[in-house]
Design goal:
With 443 residues, the chain is of the alpha+beta class. 38% of the residues lie in helices and 25% in strands. It has 14 helices and 19 strands. The strands form 5 sheets. A 7-stranded mixed β-sheet has the order 8-7-16-17-18-15-19, with helices on both faces. A 4-stranded parallel β-sheet has the order 10-2-1-14, covered by helices on one side. It has a 3-stranded antiparallel β-sheet with strand order 5-9-6. Helix 3 packs antiparallel against helix 4.
Length: 443
């Protein structure tokens, strides 16, 4: 009996995972990817011996005891992988000389925040209570559990939903900005807003710290590209086929059924099933010519807030940073005076020092990344003049290095590499609508 065929658009995590499960379930699948690398946004690039990691800060499900971990094992992601669980999520250095340390251990975090601002005890206790709620929800039944253990865990989950459902809904409907305003200490108000985005649901923030506390959101040594290569290998080992440098222009439709794809060069490929793991806007409005759009489909693209596109600066530093903490997300520090970088005016910068991962830089050296929110149209307009575009990137490189010098004296003379990616870079390599880094904000 001939196998059913499946065509998958995009070799990011979603496309590769779809291909893996297609192969495991009897399909003969092919993936068409416009870039020459797997992974989509989970990517990295090399410059002068340094690796600039474009994505991974942590991986939920890194713990072998986690229910999510079984899926990572199935797709080959965790095999031989070393994860490190860091003690700090982020440091926020205030203008008053104090520092908020967002510890990943909930007990240490609670003690630190209470010492920092005793007058905010009530709201701090609420925050910690929300994180602890997430800790319990992270204890889902796993394939390793016995039947009795699964049953007991299932009962506990049901009881949590029954007794804590209102609390969960309340946290889901509360933004970080709303929650931050409840703190009397201005430093804590600023720091909570800086954790992600003011529009983010505080529920997401709490659950992230729950995973970190449970050592279930570890950083994979090697960063993003080894993860993407692991998925690629698993897919190819199962007999899948990947066509790199193959941009899909159109999804072929007959009688309202997807029957294949047409590439940029006009070549068509037909299949029993077509799965688009490409950008949603591109899929709906371009590949399908907008023929299957109604108000419900349009609403997210017209009304939902996008995760802002980024100016992504990678640096290679001839220096180790043993004196600095190893953090999941970086150190946020004040600038001497506001600086206009790209289209943004900044009074602080966050530097992510990869001193937890020596594989990203030559021995005795360190990779650093700086992410700055930006505006897609600003760069789209500037790109009309390629010379101006490149000059602006060079200016940003100099500005970021100068800003880092304020916090890390001597770093200007130690910089060996600076690379600046813009929202147009992300759009070019991933097709993400308006160069957005992560799609929609988790409001």
């Amino acid at each position: 009996m001939q196998k059913k065929t499946m065509t998958i658009i995009g070799a990011g995590f979603a496309g590769l995972s779809a291909g893996i499960y297609a192969q495991m379930n009897g399909y003969q699948s092919e993936i068409f990817e416009m870039h020459n690398l797997p992974g989509g946004l989970c990517t990295a690039w090399k410059r002068k011996g340094y690796t600039i990691d474009g994505c991974i800060h942590w991986l939920v499900g890194s713990s072998p005891e986690s229910a999510m971990n079984q899926f990572w094992r199935e797709v080959g992601l965790t095999k031989g992988r070393e994860f490190v669980n860091l003690d700090e999520y982020m440091r926020y250095e205030g203008k008053d000389g104090r520092t908020v340390v967002f510890y990943t251990d909930v007990k240490i975090l609670e003690k630190h925040l209470l010492q920092l601002s005793p007058r905010d005890e009530k709201v701090i206790r609420e925050l910690i209570s929300g994180i602890r709620l997430g800790i319990h929800f992270d204890q889902q039944p796993t394939e390793k559990d016995s039947g009795l253990t699964k049953f007991i865990k299932g009962i506990k989950m049901g009881w949590l939903f029954l007794t804590k459902g209102k609390d969960m809904r309340r946290w889901m409907d509360t933004t970080a900005a709303q929650f931050a305003q409840r703190f009397q200490d201005p430093l804590l108000r600023e720091a909570i807003n800086e954790l992600w985005f003011p529009e983010f649901s505080v529920f997401f923030i709490m659950f992230t710290f729950s995973y970190l506390n449970n050592k279930n959101a570890g950083y994979p040594i090697g960063g993003s590209m080894p993860l993407s290569r692991a998925l690629e290998k698993r897919y190819l080992d199962l007999g899948g086929v990947i066509h790199y440098g193959s941009k899909v222009e159109k999804i072929l439709v007959e009688n309202d059924q997807a029957v294949g794809i047409e590439l940029q060069d006009g070549v068509q490929h037909r299949a029993d099933r077509v799965v688009s793991a490409a950008d949603g806007h591109t899929t709906i409005f371009k590949m399908l010519d907008g023929k299957y759009v109604d108000e419900k489909v349009k609403q997210p693209y017209e009304k939902w807030p996008l995760f802002p596109p980024l100016i992504y600066v990678g640096l290679g530093i001839n220096r180790v940073f043993d004196e600095e903490p190893k953090t999941v997300s970086g150190i946020s520090f004040c600038l001497n005076q506001p600086v206009e970088i790209g289209d943004q005016t900044l009074d602080r910068l966050t530097a992510h020092i990869f001193n937890q991962d020596p594989t990203l830089a030559p021995a005795g050296k360190t990779a650093i990344t700086v992410m700055i929110n930006s505006n897609y149209q600003y760069w789209k307009d500037m790109a009309k003049d390629p010379v101006e575009y490149e000059e602006k990137k060079g200016q940003i490189a100099r500005q970021v290095v100068s800003a880092l010098e304020q916090r890390f004296p001597g770093i200007e003379s130690q910089v060996e590499m600076v690379d600046v990616a813009t929202p147009l870079t992300f759009e070019r390599y991933t097709g993400n609508w308006q160069g957005s880094f992560e799609g929609w904000l988790i409001t």
